[in-house]
Amino acid sequence: MTQHRAARPWQRAAAGLLLLAGAVLVLPGGVEVSVTPVRGGTALWVALLTPGERFTLRYVHSVDRQPIWEEHSVDPWGALFVEEERFVMVGAGMGDLPGRGRWGGAEGLQSIRGMHYRLGEFVLRIGSPGVDHTLLWRDTATNLSAQAAGTAVQVSARPVSLAYRLWRLLSPHPATPAAGEGNG
Questions:
Q1: Which ranges of 27-130 does DSSP label H, i.e. alpha helix?
Q2: How does pLDDT run across 106-132, given as a tens digit for each residue?
Q3: Cβ neighbourhood burial of 164 (10 Å; 0-12, 13-18, 19+)
Q4: What is the per-residue pLDDT across 27-65, written as a single tens digit (0 to 9) for each?
Q5: What letter would DSSP give residue 182?
Q6: Residue 66: which residues within 8 A CB-CB, separation 6 or more?
Q7: Between the CA of residue 101 and those of 70, 73, 82, 112, 133, what are the distances in Å?
Q8: Integer Cα distance of 118 and 77 in angstroms
Q9: Sign of the C-alpha dihedral, residues 170, 20, 47, 101?
Q10: Angle, to 10 degrees, between the axis of helix 9-26 and the axis of helix 162-170?
Q11: Could you tell me which of 45, 99, 47, 94 has the C-alpha nearest to residue 67?
C-alpha cells in the first residue's frame, strides 16, 4: 500500500497560478476593431470594445453635403452591426429600409433606430477633407480623411483573449486613440 503525500502549500499556490494564467489566455477579453488600408500598411484606427459597445462613423454625404452619423456595434464573436443612422435628410443612396429599424427624429435630425443590421467586415473608401470620415469612440474623434483621403480601408473586428486585452491596456496599439484625443 502506498501513501500519498499531501501537496505542499507552495505546490497548491503554483497550481493555482498556472490555472489563473491559463484562464487569462483563454477567457474572452472583448473585441478589437481595426481600420486598415486594403492594400496593406499600418492600421489607421484600432480600438478594444466590449461586446455591444458602439462606435460612430460620421461623415458629410458627397451628394447632398449633409452630415450622417452611423452607429455600429460588435458582438462577442467579432461581427459588426449597424445599430442606428442619424441624418438631416434622406439623401442620395439612403432610401427607406423596410423592416430595418424604426424611423424617428429629434433636434432637427431624422433617424433610423433599432436596426441591428449585420454588416460583417466592410470596405470603406475614405472621402476627401470636407467629407471628413471621422470615427467617434468614447471621448475620441479620429478624422480618417485627414490621414488617408481616397484610401480604401477594411473595417474589421476580431475577438481577443483577456491576456491580449491586459497587454493592450499596458501597451496600447499605436493607432488606438487616447481618451479626450481628437483630430476631427
A1: none
A2: 777 777 777 788 888 999 999 999 899
A3: middle
A4: 778 999 999 999 999 999 999 999 999 999 999 976 677
A5: B
A6: 60, 87, 88, 89, 91
A7: 13, 15, 10, 6, 24
A8: 12
A9: negative
A10: 90
A11: 94
